[in-house]
Amino acid sequence: MPTVILGNAAPVEARKLDDNSTAVEKVPVKGLKDSRTTFNFPKGTPPGEMLATVTGVFESHHSNRPASWVESDSAALAELLADHYGCAVGRPKEKS
Amino acid sequence: MLVNSGRDLWAAAMGGQVITTYTGTNSTAATATTFTTDGVNIPANSVAGQVVVRGAVYGVILSNTSAANSVLTIDKWYTVTDPGGAAAATPAVGVWAILPGAQPAFWMAITATATAPALSDTVLTGEIATAGGGLVRAITAWAHTAGTNTYTLSKTYTANGSDTLPVTIAQMGVFNAANNGRLTFRTLVSPTATLSASGDNVAITDTITGS
Question: Does A57 contact B82 at a Cβ distance shorter than 8 Å?
Fold first, then answer.
């Protein structure tokens, strides 16, 4: 099951404009920053679909900023996403 | 919209439904859609929505009878490593268990029907189920941002030569099984999307808020 995790420096919650519709607005989450967003895909999802879903849904439903880092069990997908966002592969080390 | 049957699934998944659940060793051969518990009596339909595991495959329980040998009706047998793939082979007899909680709702279906959702809905009217088509019910991608009260379910549908086109996708439903199963969410797609030719696609994302 391919997994992608993105560093999310500006997390939001997508709130439906109408309970009966998929349309949403993004609302920042008070007190939450430097979060992470995880995507899990079913086996067999084409790489192009995974790339389009991560970039599209992250930006439309999960964050107000580009990803700050990326991890994935697919090295190729991680490289593509890092290139897209201009960020590093691998999460930053914890500050002591 | 979280419909009534979805509310029941949510309660079972979060709260456990049957907490001290069932296990045994069956001797009656299972079929592609039934499983006999052999000596374990389960109140009628009390484990619907839960998962029966036999070896490395599982089934989503759609209903169950109450008898000395309760019969579970499932939609199919799933391979744990590829639930979206072909049905698993019917398992041989042996040790089985029904897990607490409920099977997650991660199957999305679409329809051209634009009728407004209602709490009492249990099916997605006009669900596209064309054999071999690219617009049939499928497992979604799940995403969640740590610390937030929402998650998303996303799927890109690509029409192929088997689909009847053009079609305007107006609504989606989320279920807990590949076939039949419990309708959990039914939502109008905004904006609608018209697929006119093989290769046309539509990406749909539904947002679920916890409270």
Answer: no
